[in-house]
């Protein structure tokens, strides 16, 4: 998700790798190119289809880490207004999100007559469009307009929850040492409650508490990196993670735990120059990962349609189509990153793009019904 500050080569590299895994998960999971290419790479496609989504846990941990770095690097809220902070986050998220969803609505309309596949969303309705504009689509049970948009809503909920928690602690305890302890205790208590209870309730996966375990581990990781001694933090993470996995083993929690603990260890070491050089392409991908994450579904839909129409039974050409969809997703996301995501956001622009999303979606729906 968009985080312009507190970047490190390692964090951008992890974002890039996780972003690539998510794209390949969607390419493998949705098809139809993956269905045709499957005989050539059955193990690889099955792995991405079944396990590629685990990369989301990396984003959750990194989101928590960067939230702590931005909101309370020393454990106490350093922002003045919780409302302003939450509003800024909403605007920063929804401007590129609305642009990408508008393109997804148009892409779906273009391919719908040519690609009869479950991955193609139906023509949108007004309630569906409004719910997406407000990041409430999963809460109100509306079908997603694009793959992965649920994560944007969850990222916003988690950030808002962190802001409110830290603001509440400062209101009660001020800028004191007690406030630092209280804030960290509340974050970790919520983390434990999520890992041991909320994350085991599958029906709650449209709400922030379900994901707070991974997000809270990320916040703890930031404070551990800044601490004089990281060992107590790492021990606490390990004990909490072991308890959660013993109670009910979940691969996603294991990935989050290893990411958080690995982050602490790695960020307390010097970053070798040779690694900086070797990981430069992944760093660049990580820097624009939000734009790639938002836009890749539209690109994959279009490429799937072209390839399935021209070469419906060629495993080799469908495999090449998957590779082309990945590369084109990166190319298409570059303008979104440079011209939209990196610009200073404001409410007027956000409302204009949200209105464009709703208006375009309704025009598409009307055109569909007229035929």
Low-confidence stretches: 1-5
What is the 3D shape? globular
Number of helices: 16
Strand-and-helix sequence, N→C? HHHHHHHHHHHHHHHH
Number of domains: 1
Main beta-sheet annotation: none
Helical residues, percent? over 70%
| Rg over CA atoms | 21 Å
User: What is the structural class?
Assistant: mainly alpha
Number of strands: 0
Strand content: under 5%
Average predicted local confidence, pLDDT: 92
What is the straight-line distance between the termini?
Answer: 38 Å
Write up this protein.
This protein has 371 residues and is an all-alpha fold. The protein has one domain. It is 75% helix and 0% strand. It contains 16 helices and no strands. The two termini are 38 Å apart. The N terminus is likely disordered.
In short:
With 371 residues, the chain is mainly alpha-helical. The protein has one domain.
Give the topology.
Blueprint lengths: L8 H22 L2 H5 L4 H10 L3 H17 L10 H30 L14 H8 L15 H25 L3 H20 L11 H19 L4 H17 L3 H17 L5 H6 L1 H8 L1 H22 L4 H27 L5 H24 L1
Helix pairs in contact: 1-3, 1-4, 1-13, 1-14, 4-7, 4-9, 4-11, 5-7, 5-14, 5-15, 5-16, 6-16, 7-8, 7-9, 8-9, 9-10, 9-11, 10-11, 14-15
């Amino acid at each position: 998700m968009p985080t312009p500050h507190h970047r490190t080569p390692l964090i951008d590299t992890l974002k890039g790798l996780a972003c690539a895994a998510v794209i390949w998960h969607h390419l493998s999971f949705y098809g139809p190119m993956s269905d045709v290419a499957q005989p050539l790479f059955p193990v690889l496609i099955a792995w991405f289809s079944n396990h590629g989504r685990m990369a989301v846990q990396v984003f959750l941990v990194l989101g928590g880490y960067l939230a702590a770095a931005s909101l309370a690097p020393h454990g106490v809220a350093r922002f003045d207004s919780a409302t302003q902070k939450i509003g800024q986050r909403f605007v920063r998220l929804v401007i590129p999100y609305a642009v990408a969803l508008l393109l997804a609505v148009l892409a779906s309309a273009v391919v719908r007559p040519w690609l009869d596949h479950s991955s193609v969303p139906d023509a949108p309705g007004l309630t569906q469009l409004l719910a997406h504009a407000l990041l409430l689509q999963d809460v109100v049970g509306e079908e997603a307009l694009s793959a992965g948009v649920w994560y944007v809503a969850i990222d916003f909920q988690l950030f808002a929850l962190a802001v409110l928690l830290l603001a509440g602690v400062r209101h009660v305890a001020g800028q004191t040492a007690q406030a630092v302890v209280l804030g960290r205790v509340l974050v970790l208590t919520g983390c434990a409650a999520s890992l041991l209870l909320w994350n085991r309730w599958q029906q709650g996966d449209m709400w922030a508490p379900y994901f707070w375990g991974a997000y809270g581990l990320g916040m703890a990781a930031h404070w551990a990196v800044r601490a004089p001694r990281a060992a107590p933090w790492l021990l606490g993470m390990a004990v909490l993670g072991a308890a959660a996995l013993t109670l009910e083993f979940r691969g996603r929690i294991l990935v989050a735990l290893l990411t958080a603990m690995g982050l602490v260890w790695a960020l307390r070491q010097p970053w070798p120059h040779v690694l900086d050089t070797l990981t430069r392409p992944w760093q660049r991908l990580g820097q624009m990962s939000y734009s790639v994450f938002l836009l890749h579904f539209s690109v994959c839909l279009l490429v799937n349609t072209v390839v399935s129409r021209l070469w419906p039974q060629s495993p080799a050409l469908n495999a090449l189509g998957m590779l082309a969809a990945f590369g084109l997703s990166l190319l298409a996301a570059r303008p979104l990153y440079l011209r939209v995501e990196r610009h200073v956001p404001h409410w007027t622009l956000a409302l204009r793009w949200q209105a464009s999303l709703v208006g375009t979606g309704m025009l598409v729906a009307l055109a569909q019904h007229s035929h």
